Amino acid sequence: MKAFHPVEKDMVLHFEDVSFSYGNLRVLNHTSFHIHQGEFITLAGPNGAGKTTILKLMLGLEVPTGGTVQVLGTSPVNARNRVGYVPQQAGFDETFPITVEEVVGMGALRPLSRRFSRGSREAVKKALDRTSTAGLSGRSYNALSGGQRRRVLVARALASEPELLILDEPTANMDLESEAELSRTLAELKGTTTILVVTHDMEFVSSLTNRVLCLEQGVGERVVQHKITELLGRDRAGVIHGVSIAGDTCFEEEMQ
Question: What is the pTM of this model?
Answer without folding.
Answer: 0.89
